[in-house]
């Protein structure tokens, strides 16, 4: 009776000036489990909550390394993220082979942004149903970018996307000032805390459902390659965090001592 | 930017319009089998905080000194100098390729720039692609500038896609006549630190003189560039100074003289 007539394709505007197919795609991002990203002056970190479809199944991959110097975390349709990550891998490799240069992050992000945007402009195409956080370093230092199905990309200091990500974002906003000066360990802990804040009551972070990726500038300005921590490797990071379930408000008072592990 | 495409065509009012019937318009497309109008040596040396590179301003048509004001050094990004030996038309083509690359890279305006190392990798790929199509770009290139760490960079690439690097490099006749002299000054990478800019420039100028004395396809007008992290000092109309042809008297066996 009152069916929406303006959401059949991504090229039609509604009378209110909206493109429903793009908005629906953005809903798909909100269905995905939460991913968090942060940057300091030296490092960029991705932290993600993995989901398994059923008790006996494996967990869905949330973080993908693209090249030595950057990787992505995804929320939404994993298959669309695969299309985009394969494209980024090709672009990164091509830059490395033809110029001997690690592809500048700003450019690779712009290129997937352009690709996603054209999908919203052609009849018979659909927007990507996935949001990404892109974290890495290039000659201008560490960076974190957010990517949305609309084709929008922007550089962020910290960001969270996916289901219940608002609480994670609240944590990030409240602790924003501490990120720039944080070291690798502190940055990961902030990421884990933000992630924890977005968890439902009956859930907690385990080595099975948590993935962490770190990239940054190490000693003597040398790059530490994009490193993914999965499964057993995550336990070191989880144990570093002294506090159990987070206090919701998420002021970073607890666990400060635990952060002083490496300096 | 160096203008490699200056109007070097014979003037119509003097020579009459060009007779295009000499150009074959029918028949199969031919790949380059040998270079036609050629530039001779390019030589270069690394020093403490940069690179000196030089090439003369001659384009020969066989043994004829056809064009005497052809600039064979071109700059890129104010950070890199590329020296071209071999076919001049292929040099002009590469010049256009580099100009469009420069525009493409500058358009992004995002603070990322190609350095000499990046350019050398790219040019070697272009050359290797063309040789793999059996249609080579008949050039020997020296690329001078700085690498990712801001250290002096100097490397070679040729029509086969071959690449190598050394603290002193020379193409063409220079590889035989200038390279041994430059190596005496800079025997290895560790010696580079000890070489001043003045010493490097003096050695390159000396070599240009030796090349003019002994390479019959060379000229006493030349271009020389000094590349450091602070920029490029390119001089395109240098003249060889303090020539002495006294040694010519003692040369025997090449002319018509009997003894």
Descriptive overview:
Chain A: Residues 243-263 are annotated as: Disordered. Chain A: Belongs to the peptidase T1A family. Chain A: Residues 6-28 form the Proteasome alpha-type subunits domain. Chain A: It holds the Pfam family Proteasome_A_N. Chain A: It is found in: Cytoplasm; Nucleus. The complex is a heterodimer of chains A (263) and B (259). Chain A is of the alpha+beta class. Chain A is 33% helix and 24% strand. Chain A contains eight helices and ten strands. Chain A has helices spanning 20-31, 78-99, 105-119, 165-174, 176-179, 184-197, 235-240, 256-259; strands spanning 35-39, 43-49, 63-67, 70-76, 130-138, 141-147, 153-155, 158-161, 210-217, 223-229. Chain A is globular, with a radius of gyration of 19 Å. With 259 residues, chain B is an alpha+beta fold. In chain B, 27% of the residues lie in helices and 28% in strands. Chain B has helices spanning 12-15, 88-108, 116-132, 174-177, 179-185, 197-214; strands at residues 37-39, 42-47, 50-56, 59-61, 64-67, 73-76, 80-87, 139-146, 152-158, 163-165, 168-170, 221-228, 231-239. In chain B, strands 1, 4, 5, 6, 7, 8, 9 and 10 form an eight-stranded antiparallel β-sheet that branches. Chain B has a five-stranded antiparallel β-sheet with strand order 11-2-3-12-13. The model of chain B has no long low-confidence stretch (mean pLDDT 93). The A-B interface holds A 97-101, 104, 106-107, 138-140 and B 108, 110-112, 114, 117-119, 121-122, 125, 148.
